[in-house]
Amino acid sequence: MEIIFTKKNKNRVHAALEGTGKFQKLTTEEWHQFVQNYNYGLAPLLWLAEQPTCDR
After folding, report:
1. pLDDT value at position 53?
2. Which of 27, 30, 31, 43 is the most exposed place for a label (fewest CB within 10 A)?
3. Phi-psi region of 29 (alpha: psi -120 to 50; beta: other; left: phi over 0)
4. Could you tell me if 49 and 28 are in contact, meaning their C-beta atoms sit under 8 angstroms apart?
5. For 21, how many CA atoms within 13 A lie in the half-sphere containing its CB?
6. Rounded to an integer, what distance in angstroms lies between the CA atom of residue 22 and that of residue 44?
7. How many other CB atoms sit within 10 Å of the CB of residue 26?
8. 27-36 long-range contacts, CB within 8 A, separation 24+
9. At what angle do helices 7-18 and 28-37 cross, to 10 degrees?
10. Cβ partners under 8 Å of residue 3, min gap 6
């Protein structure tokens, strides 16, 4: 399955990284980009790790 990451997806991740958007509302594909670019603390990363859709 090919995942297409659109400009809308990129903007949503950017907003979450900047704090103007909510990381909780991102899609699972957007979570990957969020985690790769996030470096401000552990709270969002711990929240993501506890989600049922997050694989081990």
Report:
1. 83
2. 43
3. alpha
4. no
5. 19
6. 10
7. 19
8. 28/53, 28/54, 29/3, 29/5, 33/5, 33/9
9. 50
10. 29
Q: What pTM, to 2 d.p., does this model score? A: 0.80
Find where tokens 């929240």 sit: 47
Q: Residue 13 is which amino acid?
A: V
For residues 22-36, give the mean pLDDT: 91
Could you read off the pLDDT of 13-23 as tens digits, one per residue?
999 999 999 99
Q: Could you tell me if 44 and 38 are in contact, meaning their C-beta atoms sit under 8 angstroms apart? A: yes
Q: Look up residue 23 and give its DSSP letter.
A: G
